[in-house]
Q: What sequence folds into this?
């Protein structure tokens, strides 16, 4: 689908005339800062974030490790990521319904990883549109069998049918109108993953970075180390008030929030390049590169060695 501004008014009109399906009335208090239901925090007017837990992906509660949430306009709601299981998605949907009777017109997935997409099934109703990076259209079917094998319990009875991909894809940028609220979606080059998509709310100068920014929990490199650092350098020059990371606090001031992650990624880059220049092999450096940095992060044993491996593989042929 070509990139342009999508006005959701026709979609919302169709939703409104379906008897008993939705009541178009705004039922959210703009003064609330938090809500105990599903651990929601209102980080800016109409922007709600559920903060994920810092747990291993091997943990029983691995479906609730990512920051997910939603943005409310005058006419409808956009969900940003749905969690790592159908059940987590259902809890998010019920939390939304407890706050507002407006319809969910869009589900926006920021990238392919399970903890951000496996709750999509809870929002599938024939009217809600699913949006992702242009590469998501291929990545979802390519990963369906992996998700089914690795996260069968998270998918429930629906199995592979619960893995829902985008019906709208973003190649460059796309603007969505939620009703007096414009969201700007930007497909990013390869960085954290091959499918990174950011969401910028113009009303509050809030950028939903998702896993392009990790705080507390160690970053997970699945795309390009040099690409990620280049993107971070560009983003820190932009005038943005606050950001929502994929893991860590619900909201952070920008660009100060970038410091720790940039330091870690730069350590990976510089030390891996040095080791390659010295003629060392990956097996020799996997436990030494970034050693002083990895202990600054939670769950470093889960991703650091993998990050070094990916950095070496990328940089050895520079």
A:
């Amino acid at each position: 689908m070509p990139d342009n501004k999508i006005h959701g008014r026709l979609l919302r009109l169709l939703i409104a005339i379906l008897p008993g399906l939705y009541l178009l009335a705004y039922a959210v208090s703009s003064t609330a800062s938090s809500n105990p239901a599903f651990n929601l925090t209102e980080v800016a007017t109409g922007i709600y974030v559920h903060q994920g837990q810092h747990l291993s992906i091997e943990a029983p509660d691995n479906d609730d490790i990512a920051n997910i949430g939603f943005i409310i306009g005058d006419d409808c709601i956009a969900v940003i990521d749905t969690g790592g299981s159908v059940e987590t998605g259902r809890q998010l949907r019920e939390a939304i319904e407890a706050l507002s009777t407006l319809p969910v017109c869009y589900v926006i997935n920021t990238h392919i990883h399970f903890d951000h997409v496996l709750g999509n099934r809870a929002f599938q109703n024939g009217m809600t549109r699913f949006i992702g990076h242009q590469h998501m259209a291929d990545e979802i079917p390519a990963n369906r069998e992996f998700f089914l094998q690795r996260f069968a319990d998270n998918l429930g009875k629906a199995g592979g049918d619960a893995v829902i991909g985008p019906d709208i894809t973003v190649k460059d940028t796309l603007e969505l109108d939620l009703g007096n609220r414009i969201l700007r979606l930007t497909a990013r080059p390869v960085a954290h993953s091959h499918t990174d998509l950011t969401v910028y709310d113009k009303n509050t100068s809030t950028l939903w970075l998702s896993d392009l920014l990790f705080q507390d929990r160690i970053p997970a490199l699945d795309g390009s180390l040099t690409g990620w650092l280049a993107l971070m350098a560009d983003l820190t020059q932009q005038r943005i008030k606050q950001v929502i990371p994929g893991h860590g606090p619900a909201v952070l001031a920008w660009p100060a929030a970038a410091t720790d992650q940039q330091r870690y990624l730069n350590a990976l880059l510089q030390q891996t390049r040095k080791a390659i220049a010295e003629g060392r092999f990956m097996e020799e450096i996997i436990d030494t590169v970034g050693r002083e940095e990895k202990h600054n992060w939670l769950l470093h044993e889960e991703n650091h060695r993998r990050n070094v491996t990916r950095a070496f593989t990328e940089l050895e042929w520079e």
